Inverse folding.
């Protein structure tokens, strides 16, 4: 013990340490106070931000009904077999988990006896990008597979049935071009919200589904997912609820639509039925059509290729996008333009079967000529020579004026996502596009609906409805709306002028080229047309009929065009007849043979 | 015999014991929290290992408290020191490596008892009557501490080696060994640290070409992971998904605890794995505690440490000979350094070093070492006042 000193150290040095350590602990207390109390809200928010993910959950999509409440687009429950990856997670690198899921999918496919639909790459993408979401291994499985799955459920812990709504079109291909179709895609984020994860949402891709997507979709809700550091789902809590989309009620009448599509079946063409009192679309069809159910649950490459490669273009909506020369169905416009310009209704022209202008010769369909002919008769007989003469006399400007005010050359503004405007040429347009001056020949051609003039079937239906209602251009629309119909333009035609043209059209249906449209019990006015077109060097005829009925108080205006038909009177008039019957019904036949039972060929030939 | 026991029991410092016991109980509770989310059943039972070591440590504690510390330090001190040195030399030869460092030998970390051994050796050296207190003693200290420190540094375990520095200087200061050299060293050390931090700071902030920056980093003579830790300390937001990740996540854990915490077993940072499970039960246990128990819990732990350190220094103050005084000062400084660096690191005020929080962090060798050390402190409390009580 002696070798050790007893006490040489100063006690103040130990006291100094006591002071120093106390200061250190006070320092830590202050620092902890700053982090835990002062920065609490900031750091809590940071924690939520790094661990909470928002999943957008769409509300049920609204349905689509026709004007009588028949359902055109509905939702059905689709059963999917889904993987919840967190149940199959493996330690270590992600590839271990991906391989585990991949092997399990193979195992389940063998158990259920159905081929697997998921590729390894798809699993890999899902695990790396949307881990907390269910991985849909089989979509839209049938009841038999579901029953088999229910038997083997215990040996597949990470698998469950996931029910998601799927679009269904109960009417099949009917009204396909109006309704359009839906696809599944990334949803749009709500304002001020961020989507971390989503299951592809139904989004309208064409037609009403696209035009009214916003209304049909409703407001998406959110679900919040707590994820761990690896990204696996840890807990779920509901965020704001979703709001179901609103139903859309169309002006379409499925009865008329069916009649129109049945009439067009087998042809390439299109037809539109409007209510001339307000612009409501009663039917709108393009043939051939497609079945939007084929795109559910997803558009397969096979279906897409078949529809896209079809030369008949079934996806193309001819009714609003087709461009057809209107032929003689345009003649009422020429007539009314002339009457407005002060041309007398009594003015006659001697038709000898051909109209000559300089070196140009325009043949009338009646090679022998109509002889001395006045306007009402010229409409009924559809005399080319008369209208060429008329057009030549008044010049192009009045014709352009009337056609433009009706809305030719511009889209009608129907509530569909894409609409063509046809072509109503002007001198300037021809100068620019064709480097050629406007010639009197152009005016003559357009007077009979040929030449450079191109219209859509919808425009022609609109034109017909303007003649039907005496001069008001309503915006055609597919969705019923409250309030007064929206008039785009009022023609302000003199009453006697419009009466004469309407009378001419009445004669067409009663006596002339359009007799096959007649419906027993309803007075019909019509105009036929056959436009010769050059399609890739081959001369083809686009055959038209426009009609409205009942004659005095019209409630339906129809325009139908058929590509490569025989003639308007022969090919299209019976179609229009069927459509009008679907609207008005037909009185039972009286027991006397009528001339229209078997129409003699030459009388209804021509346009 | 009974009288002896009662007599010695009365001389125990109760606060010293109570604070330590409180910290151990808290430690077991929060190691349970942290390991409850582990999948491996053995790792889930980590808190039991912690409690077992607490019980074994208590035996060592009572045994060492019973034995006169002068016998322990003066007779066995250098033996313990030599044994630790041998173990430290064996570590790189036959030790096992975990997570890139070779620190383990037969399931223990020889670097932990080495800290105790160094304190014991210095307490013995400086309290000898013939001990010179000049340059020779300073150089001797340098060698005695330098050899184990170099071996620990080579493992590599910078934290453990660094924590010896304040401990040794505190003892040198208390023993009044070569005061001028000691102060010069403190100043030089501070200047060196400032220089290293300055180099890393300018390398990051200046617009020098890449090679020049790399040269500046190389001048610090630190290993790449050490450089990264200092960079994270200087620029906390630099690499939140890489080397700055742990710092950021522990800061979020502590901060989101708020004043009263989220409740026991309700901490989200470790439960969701943002605070990596490999560190949540040892180096970052304080983050788990602070998140679940809030500022109130943090303050409780700090007060327990205050009681522990204060009563330890009180034992030194009351002790009548230098061996006990120096030993106590050494152990208390070591404990304070561990605590301070660990908590400051958890809230991002210190670079990340793998230093455990005494009695709370899971780590069996360290726990056993610390309990043994405080057993000796308790022995100082019992035997150091002998002369006083005789009269």
């Amino acid at each position: 013990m002696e070798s050790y000193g007893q006490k040489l150290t100063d006690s103040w040095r130990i006291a100094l340490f006591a002071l120093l350590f106390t200061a250190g602990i006070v320092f830590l207390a202050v620092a902890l106070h700053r982090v835990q109390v002062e920065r609490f809200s900031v750091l809590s928010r940071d924690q939520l931000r790094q661990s909470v993910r928002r999943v957008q959950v769409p509300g049920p999509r609204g349905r689509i009904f026709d004007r009588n409440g028949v359902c055109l687009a509905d939702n059905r429950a689709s059963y999917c077999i889904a993987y919840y990856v967190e149940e199959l997670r493996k330690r270590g690198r992600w590839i271990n988990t991906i391989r585990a899921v991949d092997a399990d999918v193979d195992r389940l496919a063998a158990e259920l006896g159905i081929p697997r639909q998921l590729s390894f790459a798809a699993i890999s993408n899902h695990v790396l990008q949307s881990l907390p979401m269910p991985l849909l291994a089989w979509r839209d499985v049938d009841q038999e597979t579901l029953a088999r799955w229910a038997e083997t459920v215990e040996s597949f812990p990470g698998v469950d049935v996931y029910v998601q709504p799927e679009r269904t079109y109960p009417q099949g291909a009917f009204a396909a071009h109006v309704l359009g179709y839906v696809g599944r895609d990334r949803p749009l984020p709500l304002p001020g919200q961020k989507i971390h994860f989503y299951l592809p949402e139904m989004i309208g891709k064409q037609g009403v589904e696209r035009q009214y997507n916003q209304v049909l979709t409703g407001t998406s809700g959110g679900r919040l997912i707590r994820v761990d550091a690896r990204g696996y789902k840890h807990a779920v809590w509901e965020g704001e609820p979703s709001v179901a989309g609103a139903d859309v009620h169309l002006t379409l009448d499925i009865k008329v639509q069916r009649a129109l599509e049945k009439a067009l079946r087998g042809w390439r063409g299109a037809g539109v039925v409007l209510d001339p009192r307000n612009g409501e679309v009663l039917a709108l069809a393009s043939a051939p059509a497609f079945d939007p159910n084929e795109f559910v649950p997803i558009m397969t490459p096979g279906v897409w290729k078949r529809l896209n490669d079809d030369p008949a273009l079934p996806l193309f909506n001819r009714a609003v996008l087709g461009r057809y020369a209107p032929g003689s169905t345009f003649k009422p416009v020429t007539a009314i333009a002339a009457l407005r310009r002060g041309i007398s209704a009594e003015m006659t022209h001697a038709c000898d079967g051909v109209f000559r202008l300089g070196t140009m010769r325009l043949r009338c369909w009646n090679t022998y000529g109509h002889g001395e002919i006045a306007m009402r008769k010229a409409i009924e007989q559809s005399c080319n020579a008369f209208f060429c003469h008329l057009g030549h006399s008044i010049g192009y400007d009045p014709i352009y004026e009337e056609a433009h005010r009706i809305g030719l050359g511009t889209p009608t503004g129907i509530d569909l996502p894409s609409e063509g405007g046809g072509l109503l040429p002007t001198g300037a347009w021809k100068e620019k596009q064709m480097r050629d001056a406007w010639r009197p020949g152009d005016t003559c051609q357009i007077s009979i609906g040929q030449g450079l003039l191109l219209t859509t079937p919808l425009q022609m239906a609109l034109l017909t409805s303007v003649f039907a209602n005496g001069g008001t251009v309503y915006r055609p629309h597919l969705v019923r709306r409250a309030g007064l119909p929206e008039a785009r333009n009022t023609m302000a035609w003199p009453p006697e002028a419009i009466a004469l043209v309407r009378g001419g059209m009445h004669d067409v249906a009663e006596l002339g080229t359009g007799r096959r449209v007649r419906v027993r019990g309803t007075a019909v006015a019509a105009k036929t047309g056959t436009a010769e077109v050059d399609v890739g060097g081959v001369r083809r005829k686009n055959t038209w009929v426009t009609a409205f009925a009942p004659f005095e108080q019209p409630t339906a205006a129809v325009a139908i065009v058929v590509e490569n038909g025989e003639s308007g009177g022969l090919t299209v008039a019976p179609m229009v007849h069927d459509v009008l019957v679907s609207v008005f019904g037909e009185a039972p036949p009286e027991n006397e043979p009528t001339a229209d039972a078997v129409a003699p060929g030459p009388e209804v030939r021509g346009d | 015999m009974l009288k002896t026991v009662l007599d010695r029991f009365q001389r125990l410092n109760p606060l010293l014991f109570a604070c330590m016991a409180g910290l151990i109980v808290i430690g077991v509770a929060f190691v349970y929290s942290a390991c409850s989310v582990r999948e491996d059943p053995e790792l889930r039972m980590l808190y039991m290992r912690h409690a077992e070591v607490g019980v074994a440590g208590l035996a060592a504690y009572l045994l060492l408290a019973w034995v006169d510390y002068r016998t322990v330090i003066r007779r066995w001190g250098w033996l313990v020191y030599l044994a630790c040195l041998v173990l430290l030399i064996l570590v790189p030869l036959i030790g096992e490596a975990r997570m890139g460092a070779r620190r383990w030998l037969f399931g223990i970390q020889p670097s932990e008892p080495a800290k105790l051994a160094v304190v014991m050796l210095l307490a013995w050296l400086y309290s000898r009557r013939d001990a010179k207190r000049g340059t020779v003693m300073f150089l001797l200290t340098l060698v005695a501490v330098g050899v184990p420190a170099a071996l620990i540094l080579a493992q590599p375990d910078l934290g453990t080696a660094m924590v010896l520095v304040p401990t040794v200087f505190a003892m040198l200061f208390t023993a009044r060994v070569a005061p001028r050299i000691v102060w010069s060293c403190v100043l030089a050390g501070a200047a060196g640290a400032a220089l290293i931090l300055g180099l890393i700071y300018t390398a990051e902030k200046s617009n020098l070409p890449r090679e020049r920056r790399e040269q500046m980093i190389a001048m610090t003579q630190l290993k790449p992971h050490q450089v990264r830790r200092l960079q994270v300390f200087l620029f906390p937001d630099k690499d939140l998904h890489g080397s700055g990740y742990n710092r950021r996540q522990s800061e979020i854990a502590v901060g989101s605890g708020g004043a009263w915490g989220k409740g026991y077993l309700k901490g989200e940072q470790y439960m969701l794995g943002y605070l990596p499970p490999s560190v949540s039960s040892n180096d970052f246990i304080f983050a788990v505690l602070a998140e679940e128990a809030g500022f109130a819990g943090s303050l409780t732990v700090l007060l327990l440490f205050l009681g522990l350190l204060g009563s330890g220094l009180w034992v030194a103050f009351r002790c009548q000979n230098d061996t006990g005084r120096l030993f106590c000062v050494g152990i208390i400084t070591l404990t304070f350094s561990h605590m301070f660096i660990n908590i400051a690191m958890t809230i991002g005020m210190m670079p990340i070093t793998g230093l455990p929080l005494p009695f709370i962090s899971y780590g069996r060798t360290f726990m056993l070492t610390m309990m043994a050390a405080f057993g000796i402190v308790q022995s100082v409390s019992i035997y150091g006042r002998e002369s006083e009580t005789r009269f």
